[in-house]
């Protein structure tokens, strides 16, 4: 998606019009322009699908690094991708890893990563990473080129449902 950095172009709300040209010849350019605005507004919305495969998130990240190949004037927004990792049960005071299947190379940039775990028997849930004041029961979350890791300081194995959401860029 190529947009100028003018804040008017970044507005994603569809304008409401109560007046339009009266003739077809005058109205056609008006209709085409409104359809463009509608398409841009819809396309700029975050996609509500959280799947266990790489997909477009619907988010556009700040333009990439200016490089010589495009004359140093790139205004191309970068596409943000999302993937959900089905992590399963949390570990018992240890580290658990699950492969993520994401291409993690020199072009990879992590934007955000978060998780949540649910104990369906005791009806308790919490976000990850997790920390509580003055306590040593924290839960850490990190990734490397191959796996996503969750580290628990105590037995959290009753939390049998855990999903990790990773949003990232695959381009500089």
Task: Explain what you see.
By secondary structure, the protein is α+β, with helices and mostly antiparallel strands. It folds into two domains: 7-43, no CATH class; 55-169, Immunoglobulin-like (Sandwich). It contains two helices and eight strands, in the order ααββββββββ. The protein has helices spanning 7-10, 24-43, and strands at residues 55-61, 78-86, 95-99, 109-119, 124-128, 139-143, 147-152, 161-169. The strands form two sheets. The protein has a five-stranded antiparallel beta sheet with strand order 1-2-8-4-5, with no helix packed on it. A hairpin with a 3-residue loop joins strand 6 (139-143) and strand 7. The longest helix has 20 residues, at 24-43. It is elongated. It starts with 6 loop residues before the first helix and ends with a strand. 13% of the residues are buried. The model is unreliable at 1-5 (pLDDT under 50).
Secondary-structure map with pairings?
Blueprint (H helix, E strand, L loop, with lengths): L6 H4 L13 H20 L11 E7 L16 E9 L8 E5 L9 E11 L4 E5 L10 E5 L3 E6 L8 E9 L3
Antiparallel strand pairs: 1-2, 2-8, 3-7, 4-5, 4-8, 6-7
How would you state the average pLDDT, rounded?
A: 84
Q: Could you list the spans in which at least 5 consecutive residues all have pLDDT below 50?
A: 1-5
What's the story with the biggest beta sheet?
5 strands, antiparallel
CATH topology of the largest domain: Immunoglobulin-like
Return the string of H and E elements.
HHEEEEEEEE
Count of spatially separate domains = 2
**Apparent shape:** elongated
Strand order of the largest sheet: 1-2-8-4-5
Distance between the termini: 15 Å
CATH class of the largest domain: Mainly Beta
């Amino acid at each position: 998606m190529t947009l100028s950095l003018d804040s008017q172009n970044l507005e994603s709300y569809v304008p409401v019009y109560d007046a339009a040209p009266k003739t077809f010849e005058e109205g056609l350019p008006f209709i085409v322009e409104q359809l463009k605005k509608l398409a841009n507004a819809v396309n700029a919305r975050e996609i509500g699908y959280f799947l266990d495969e790489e997909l477009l998130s619907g988010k556009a990240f700040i333009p990439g690094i200016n490089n010589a190949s495009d004359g140093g004037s790139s205004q191309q927004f970068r596409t943000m991708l999302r993937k959900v990792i089905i992590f399963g049960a949390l570990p018992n005071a240890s580290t658990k890893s699950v492969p993520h299947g994401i291409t993690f190379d020199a072009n990879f940039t992590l934007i955000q990563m978060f998780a949540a775990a649910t104990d369906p028997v005791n009806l308790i849930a919490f976000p990850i990473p997790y920390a509580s004041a003055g306590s040593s029961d924290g839960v850490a979350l990190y990734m490397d080129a191959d796996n996503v890791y969750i580290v628990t300081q105590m037995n959290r194995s009753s939390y049998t449902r855990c999903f990790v959401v990773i949003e990232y860029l695959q381009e500089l």
